[in-house]
Design goal:
Structural class: mainly alpha
CATH topology of the largest domain: Four Helix Bundle (Hemerythrin (Met), subunit A)
CATH class of the largest domain: Mainly Alpha
Strand content: under 5%
Distance between the termini: 61 Å
Order of helices and strands: HHHHEHHHEHHH
Shape: globular
CATH architecture of the largest domain: Up-down Bundle
Number of helices: 10
Number of domains: 2
Largest sheet: 2 strands, antiparallel
Helix content: over 70%
CATH superfamily of the largest domain: CDP-alcohol phosphotransferase transmembrane (TM) domain
Number of strands: 2
Strand order of the largest sheet: 1-2
């Protein structure tokens, strides 16, 4: 019996949740935006299981890998981009600039939002043809999609209420999108990380997680993903300084 349908079903579930996220985000309320964000988080959870399940069942295939990339493009490219547009980027118009023939104001927020699915698609295509088993070249699209999904979940309408917050979000959004197609190296999370820690380091790690949950609560996951994003930038800067020291 071919068991490939099991990991492929998880992959299709990933795509399905991404599509539902887009539909939910179109409802124009911050409650809907939060739900859409949680759906992207659910897609990331399924995305994290399909590969290990395929390897455990020994049914890994090129078809499954390509299907995974297509699903990721929807769940972590299109869905976060549409969510960001509806929640924070829509309505960026300039006086006198209209759409040809229609005469309606041209919303430049559409072009900013479109950067995310474009970069995610390129990132995934590049990964399919040239990947390193030890690290990622560019920010992984699931991490990028998750951090965008966490913005409405963690901050709600706060960003939408002030222009300065929307501007900060737009810059953060653009940087995150461009990091996907950059050559900045990111470490691959490994399950053996926890088991390789000695007792003292493991205790410090657990205490750190507990303190993070106590003091930051729903911001905890956002902070962890944001630190992961910053880790790649930090490593890139250090490497750049070392390479150009003399």
């Amino acid at each position: 019996m071919n068991l490939a349908w099991i990991p492929n079903s998880l992959t299709m579930g990933n795509l399905l949740l991404g599509f539902i996220s887009v539909v939910v985000a179109s409802q124009n309320s911050f409650q809907a935006y939060s739900i859409a964000g949680f759906l992207i988080l659910g897609a990331a959870l399924l995305d994290g299981f399909d590969g290990p399940v395929a390897r455990a069942l020994k049914v890994s295939s090129r078809l499954g890998a390509e299907l995974d990339s297509l699903a990721d493009c929807i769940a972590f490219g299109v869905a976060p981009g549409y969510l960001a547009y509806k929640a924070y980027l829509s309505g960026i118009c300039f006086p006198g600039v209209t759409l040809p023939l229609l005469g309606t104001p041209l919303d430049f927020g559409i072009f900013i939002a479109s950067l995310f699915p474009i970069c995610a698609a390129y990132r995934l295509a590049r990964f399919n043809v040239n990947s390193d088993p030890n690290s990622f070249s560019g920010l992984p699209s699931p991490a990028a999609g998750v951090v965008m999904a966490l913005v409405p979940v963690s901050f709600g309408a706060i960003i939408h209420s002030e222009l300065i917050y929307k501007m900060i979000f737009a810059v953060f959004y653009i940087i995150t999108a461009l990091l996907m197609v950059s050559t900045v190296r990111y470490a691959k999370p490994k399950p053996s990380f926890i088991t390789n820690l000695n007792r003292i380091k493991l205790l410090v790690f657990i205490v750190g997680i507990i303190l993070l949950l106590i003091f930051f609560k729903k911001l905890s996951v956002f902070i962890v993903i944001a630190l992961y994003i910053l880790s790649g930038i930090y490593s890139f800067i250090i490497q750049f300084i070392q390479d150009h020291r003399y």
